[in-house]
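Obj.: predict assembly geometry.
Materials: sequence records (below).
Method: joint structure prediction, all chains together.
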Amino acid sequence: MTQYIYYPGCSVKSTGKVYEESLLSVFKYLDTPLKEIDDWNCCGATAYFSIDESEAFGLAARNLALAEKQFNGSKNLHIVAPCSACYLVLKKTQDYLNRDQELRRKIELGLNEVGLSYESIVQVRHPLDVVVNDIGLDKIKEKVTRPLRGLKVACYYGCQIVRPYRDFDHERNPMTMDNLVEALGGEPIDWPLKTRCCGGSLTGTIEEVGLRLSYIILREVRRRGADLVITTCPLCQFNLECYQERINKDFNESLEIPIIYFTQLMGLAFGISDKEIGIHRLFIPITKLAKLRKGGENVYV
Amino acid sequence: MFETKPNNEIRIGFYVCHCGHNIADTVDVKEVAKYVATLPGVIVSREYKYMCSDPGQELIQNDIKEHNLNRIVVASCSPLLHEHTFRNATEKGGLNPFYFHMVNIRENVSWVHEDKKEATIKAMDLARAAIKRVFFHKKLETKKVDIHPDVLIVGGGIAGIHAALTLANAGKKVYLVEREPTIGGHMAKFDKTFPTLDCAACILTPKMSAVKNHPNITLWTYSEVTKVEGFVGNYKATIERKPRYINEDLCVGCMACIDECVYKEGKYPDEFNMGLSKRKPIYIPFPQATPQVVVIDPETCIYLKTGKCKKTCVEACDRNAVVLDQKPEIKEINIGTIIIATGYQFFDPSRITYYGYGKYQNVYTGLEIERLVNASGPTGGEVIMRDGRKPKSIGIIHCVGSRDVNTHLWCSRLCCMYAVKLAHLLKEHTGAEVYNFYIDMRTAGKGYEEFYDKVLKEGVHFIRGRVAEVTDWASTKDEEGKLIMRVEDTLIGVVRRVPVDMVVLICGVEPKDDAQDVRRIFNISCSTEGFFMERHPKLAPVDTFTDGIFIAGACQGPKDIPDSVAQAGAAAAQCMALIDCGSVELEPNTAYIVEEECSGCKSCIQLCPYTAISFNDEKKKAYINEALCKGCGTCVASCPSGSIRQNLFENEEIFSEIEGLLSPAFEYTKEN
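Observations (raw structure tokens):
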């Protein structure tokens, strides 16, 4: 049987807290409860890799080794990493360790010192992939209690879950989330910026560049008439939601687009309570949406 | 191992070639010559700078006379290159040419090794094996076979048409087989041709009708070659003529049947107009189609699909040419030579999702534009986009599916020119602003650069940069409703957004989807990218590795019209060289039966890939037709009683060669 083990990473424990809340609730609702890895550490993110690559690989590999140790014996072990950056770093680590024997030897020596080993058993998965391809859209349709009828959703994938590893979707025009929205009863909009950069950490470093990139996405979402954006990544969600006020000021705009996680949207369709999926924590509330759409009573709120 | 000793005294001449630096830099040729001189039977052992040169060949001839030699071994390059040369020299010296044997110490030694000492020892080993082998060589005679004078040409594009006319005008009988309902190929779809801008139809259609009317050409369209057997000079081809549901001999192309079809309007995408217009299930591809014969598409004809229709087409024809129960027809022909001119296909741009072909309706392929600007095209030559508007600005993207690690690595060679031509035609037809996005302009060819210069002066914009994406997300008011081309202009070093009404994708040239199947039918090879492979990239560009089969046009690699025509002429000349010579000499490496040992078990008969073995019922023995035997050796190895032998590969020859190769390695002690 497939064994899923949950690797949260730092973001979903802080700024992306609602991601974790909604993810765990939704997986529980879908009869696939997730158990967290004990004693996990930072994935290394992009920052550590630019300082010392092999140490960064060691950091990420420790998480993989921990998963294998804690689920000893399971041959079908999947690490579920909701944060796009964690997902990519863990995948990259696996890939490099498989290809570079020299690196692998070095990392294994390090792991052995702390009583760990990495056997390449565990697979790295994004929860979106698990939801759509393992649990399946049929089951999801069955579980929907409040279909998102009439809701126009912009599915925003960000850059990291489809590039460079194209494990479960197309690198330029992914459709997994769009199909999910349809299964939930909503209307995914067709738009060309699904995997365009949100600005990433530039919003914190070269602000004007980062904000501009976020603005391009938000403006196009409004132009296409979407009611809200769903994302798969804590940094995308943070950039697009928390900077909207600032973007409005800088670009003389009046944007007010809710940015939520795909797991929150699932929770809404499943009828899970707002508190369990972190709706109450949003900066840009979704309560107005019902009034915006005709036949509002059919919409989730 | 073999005690058999030849009767006469064996006197061997051995020659090792420097091949300039090619061999001598890696193999110590002096040492090789010195060593071989010590071997039994060797009378003369020499090294020489270029054995293939005239003085090199004379060396062999003189030695044969002077030293009374009766075996010759040359250690040099591949037998593919010079075996023939040295056999001739041996013959001129007065010996049977098959007393000669060649050792390849270039491709097999000097070009693949770096260590001079090791390489020299290997060269010595190979030489020793050859010396041992030639002891058992026998006098052999080459066989001559007649060349059947008829030619099969596969593919009726411009290359096939030109080759067919060249041969037919020289008095040769030609079968031209084309898969589509008409000949003409891609060229028939083009509007004008670069760099002279003469109309493609005006220069092509006279040649098409010349093909149809030529007494020496049998034209079979809507037909495919399904099987080819035989060998150079004596091929037998099977051709399937697909049913077009029209009697080709009776139809005069009056099109009354088309008018009377139960479909009042065209309903299905017209292949000739790249789907930009509609046709009926019964149609003629285009006004100058050759032959001028109607065809019925079984995929869309109601009667052929369901068996239920008023069959108004049958009634409409006063010549009774509509035959709805027509069956495929199989033709078998004998020919001596074959030209393959099956052409190419354009890269499918929907594979590159970020250019939006198939997603945005105003993104077109180059071939679609050819039809759009053509006077007999779907819009009568007026450039009207799929949304009904006329473009005021047009972006042309070069290298779509060319020079791209994600799709095809090669340069498709003709696209820069056809992009420039389309830029000119579009500007002429619409007056729009036209932007070309290129990586490098490659306009090599007579009059090509001048044409590019002319179009530059017409005010067409050229922006150097590979377009990143074609999108419809607008960032300003001006961009609303436009297709935006995002590109890094590498000449001024900035990222640009160029909003346009229409985008044209200049798709690269790739091998046809079924090139591998065709390759198998004709037993020829493909190079890595999938185009048919020529025998030599420089010196035998239209030959293949199968004698008597030639290639012409873009099936060999991307090629424009002038080059395709030149190659077609060359292929026709190669066929004529064989036909006019009348016969061809075959290598006498054939298998033969030792009758007294043959038990008549017939196991060899099934195995022969060339059907060269038959069974003699009177003698109860197998019989090998030497003209059909290609010397593959399959029967020799499989004969349970060992009663099949093969010239040039006799047991004694092979075993002594192996023995020579495996005998204790020579201790090469020279200090270097």
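Conclusions so far: The interface with chain B takes residues 170, 172-173, 191-193, 216, 219-220, 223 of chain A (CB under 8 Å).
To do: check interface contacts against the pulldown list.
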